[in-house]
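Hi R.,

As promised on Friday, here is the backbone we talked about, encoded as structure tokens. Could you run it through your design pipeline when you get a chance and send me back a sequence?
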């Protein structure tokens, strides 16, 4: 396989990364719409729309802010183009979380708005990271050099950790684990989203060690610091795990 992978059209081509990113948004939203039609939602449609706007704004700001700070040595080159050209999922997720919490407080919504988004987000992440993998070195999400048998040469002659594939495997396993848990138990309001966030933040904290990031003298990167902040925000998940479960499941959960 040659990277980046493009769909040939006449003498040019469409990057598969762009196609996957578009599909991630489209299919993720369609899956969410399907779940909302088949699940009782405590939040009204109007409030959902306002919360989505808050999440989108927060995710936009967060993803680009953390992306810009990812390499402090390049801040001297800061510009609007540099700001728009750098983004990261971790910043987007935590920025979106902040945007949602501020929005919900303003409109008086107390019910969890994230539980219904978990499986659509997982689906979108799997599709999106597939595009990142097929983009090769252009995407900048590859790992450091490795001699492991599954290491991949993305086109520069260096075999690297396929961290994109690691993340796809992580999301698939998280989906399976959540489904297994929900066959036996009922999550408390908001608990599914908390497990989703904490699991990913822990994964990304560890995954960053095998990426060619900028690390401070004390041994961690900007993204890892952001991950730590997010994990601390959800500290109750670790000290009160029993509160994540509301009861034993009486009926199967059909969130495919």
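Update: got your reply. Pasting your designed sequence below so it's all in one thread:
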């Amino acid at each position: 396989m040659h990277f980046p992978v493009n769909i040939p059209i006449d003498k040019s081509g469409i990057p598969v990364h762009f196609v996957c990113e578009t599909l991630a948004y489209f299919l993720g939203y369609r899956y969410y719409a399907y779940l909302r039609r088949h699940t009782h939602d405590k939040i009204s449609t109007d409030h959902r729309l306002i919360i989505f706007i808050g999440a989108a704004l927060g995710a936009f700001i967060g993803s680009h802010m953390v992306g810009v700070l990812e390499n402090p040595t390049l801040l001297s080159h800061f510009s609007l183009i540099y700001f728009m050209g750098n983004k990261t999922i971790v910043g987007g997720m935590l920025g979106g979380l902040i945007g949602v919490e501020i929005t919900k407080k303003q409109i008086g919504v107390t019910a969890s708005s994230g539980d219904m988004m978990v499986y659509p987000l997982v689906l979108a992440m799997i599709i999106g990271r597939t595009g990142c993998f097929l983009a090769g070195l252009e995407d900048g999400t590859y790992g450091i050099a490795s001699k492991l048998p599954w290491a991949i040469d993305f086109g520069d002659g260096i075999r690297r950790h396929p961290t994109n594939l690691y993340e796809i495997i992580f999301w698939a396993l998280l989906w399976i684990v959540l489904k297994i848990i929900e066959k036996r138990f009922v999550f408390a309001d908001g608990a599914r989203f908390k497990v989703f966030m904490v699991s990913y933040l822990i994964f990304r904290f560890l995954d960053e060690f095998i990426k060619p990031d900028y690390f401070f003298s004390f041994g961690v990167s900007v993204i890892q610091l952001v991950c730590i902040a997010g994990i601390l925000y959800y500290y109750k998940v670790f000290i009160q795990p029993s509160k994540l479960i509301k009861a034993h499941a009486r009926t199967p959960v059909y969130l495919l």
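One thing I noticed while checking it: The radius of gyration is 19 Å.

Thanks again,
M.
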